[in-house]
Amino acid sequence: VGPKKEVAECKEKFASSVDPTVSQTFMLDRVFNPEGKSLTPMRGFKYSSWSPLGCDANGRCLLAALTMDNRLTIHANLNRLQWVQLVDLTELYGERLLEASYKLCKADTPCGELGDFPEFQRRHSMQTPVRMEWSGICTTQQVKHNNECRDVGSVLLAVLFENGNIAVWQFQLPFLGKESITSCNTIESGISSPSVLSWWEYEHNNRKMSGLIVGSAYGPVKIIPVNLKAVKGYFTLRQPVVLWQEMDQLPVHSIKCIPLYHPYQKCSCSLVVAARGPYVFWCLLLISKAGLNVHNSHVTGLHSLPIVSMTADKQNGTVYTCSSDGKVRQLIPIFTDVALKFEHQLIKLSEVFGCVRTHGIAVSPCGAYLAVITTEGMANGLHPVNKNYQVQFVTLKTFEEAAAQLLESSVQNLFRQVDLTDLVRWKILKDKHIPQFLQEALDKKIESCGSTYFWRFKLFLLRILYQSMQKAPSEVTWKPSHEDAKILISDSPGLGSTEDDQEEGTSKQASKQSLGDTGKGVDIDDTAEDSLHQSSDTGGREPMVEKLLEIQAQIEAVEMHLTREHMKRVLGEVYLHTWITENTSIPTRGVCDFLMSDDGYDDRTARVLIGHILKKMNKQTFPEHCSLCKEILPFTDRKQAVCSNGHIWLRCFLTYQSCQSLVYRRCLLHDSIARHPTPEDPEWIKRLLQGPCTFCDSPVF
């Protein structure tokens, strides 16, 4: 808000002021007085917001975090289990205001002196964040110097401040830090005492519209236009739209915007729901020939206490609300000729968890789970002495619904539907077999369309089935042992192991435990008991071993099919991006020979493609060489390359090059190895290296 020395002098002046309206306001306001002396320290987070998938360097989410001392930062999970702060937006915005002399535009009146208490308050309120929300990813085309067009992604972060202003930051993707910030524009909302913020994104006749919905602690809700001049194909409102204007002192706690399809009007519409006290305010926005139609009302009789949290399933429009007494309401929108109505039913958490107090709820991306934060409720009319916060998970879908949704999914990515796959995984681990209806439906999908997504789904099912057949570990693998086993360093067999290797081993154990012990009804004791019976009975053990070998053979067959399909894609990229005989650093000849080595593999597309590539290569082989002994690395295995001197190098599953460096990447589930892109790589190879795992769709980092 000003030079450090001047700010310190002003703080001392206001704290010792004889005017109680100044001194008491200053001392009790934690924005001015974050250290607070005798008050509790400002530790922890006030609010957090996840970006859409695909915003960081690994194609995952960014996290915007607002701390209790009003500092807004953006973090990314760049390496495994390591969160890195990329940028401090509070500091950057403060620098911008300082350069502009704390004026939003040049026409504003000159600001007063920092020594004036109203000016001191104004400078703080104009950069104290209340809420921040991410927009969807905007994709535009950028023309390069050679007249080629490339898709450039960007995302917007709207930050609502205490004085009602909204700063809209535009970031280029992938977001790497300060250098990825494209612009920052400030909008005046005109809302006094703002409390909550949400993006309004609406698509009508292939035209995308956007705006910002702002709610006030006094009651009003309105949409503010956001002019996205830099983003082509996006439009906004001509003027603000007031959704609720009554100053009825019911604070707006949470706002959700859900895109839906209107079955009677035969067009897309936008449903805005807001929690106001114990009520849910809803507003249906519909664009017709007459303009923007707005229908609004309140849903009453839901809770006897104020709503503390609200979440929405954006796939079917279902809204969930909860109050602190442990009651959760499910609201299902039903369209009528004119607008809509809500059917609601009560979910009593006390029947599942006992007497609890609820503090927050969230629904998983595909609506499979409802996460609930709870503490102990009253026992015999008394509050608990200590509060133990727990995150409880409630299933909202059955196994059959999750399986059907995965089979009919338009996303066709297992990683993006991990909550649905978790329900399927739990069912197979529990029953130790894949249900017949799912197996038949999946085989039909594979025969009819042959998409690699269904092959990956089949691989996922077979792996979980194999996992369920294995003997459960006698000890819990993730718990650290408290035995102090002393050994001489010179005699230690693991002397050369690095910290990364140890961490990798730990993560493998943890992933195995998470697959084996789900905590949702998988009876480990029964599994171990079954295994004991099988091991004691030789006749019962042999069929189990045969079954495991059969499943293993099926897994290898599916993995080989997925490998061949990806090899065809890589060869297609090689053919498209090479004009003459060129060493692309991809072992093209080796991949071609590997594809044709199996007599049982008869793919006409692959044969035609390989014929064209070999004709273009003109008898050149361009073999890879071992960096240690300079011997040729033959392409005999898709996972590793071994030279004649026995040096072993892992192969990149994205380009099939040998990773001849000590640093490489792994997919999230440790399925595959991938190399890092180098500055010498052409754009098409870098694009290949950005792909997800070909077996499980997980990001690679």
TrEMBL record:
GO MF annotations, alphabetized: histone acetyltransferase activity
Domain of life from the UniProt record: Eukaryota
Compositional bias (Polar residues): 507-516
Stretches assigned to the Transcription factor IIIC 90kDa subunit N-terminal domain: 6-397
Alphabetized Pfam families for the sequence: DUF5921 (PF19336), TFIIIC_delta (PF12657), zf-TFIIIC (PF12660)
Residue ranges crossing the lipid bilayer per the database entry: none
Region annotated Disordered, chain positions: 489-543
Occurrences of domain DUF5921 (ranges): 398-475
GO cellular component, one term: transcription factor TFIIIC complex
GO biological process assignments: transcription initiation at RNA polymerase III promoter
Domain annotation Transcription factor IIIC putative zinc-finger: ranges: 618-668
Protein name per UniProt: TF3C4 factor
Species of origin: Catharus fuscescens
Gene: Gtf3c4
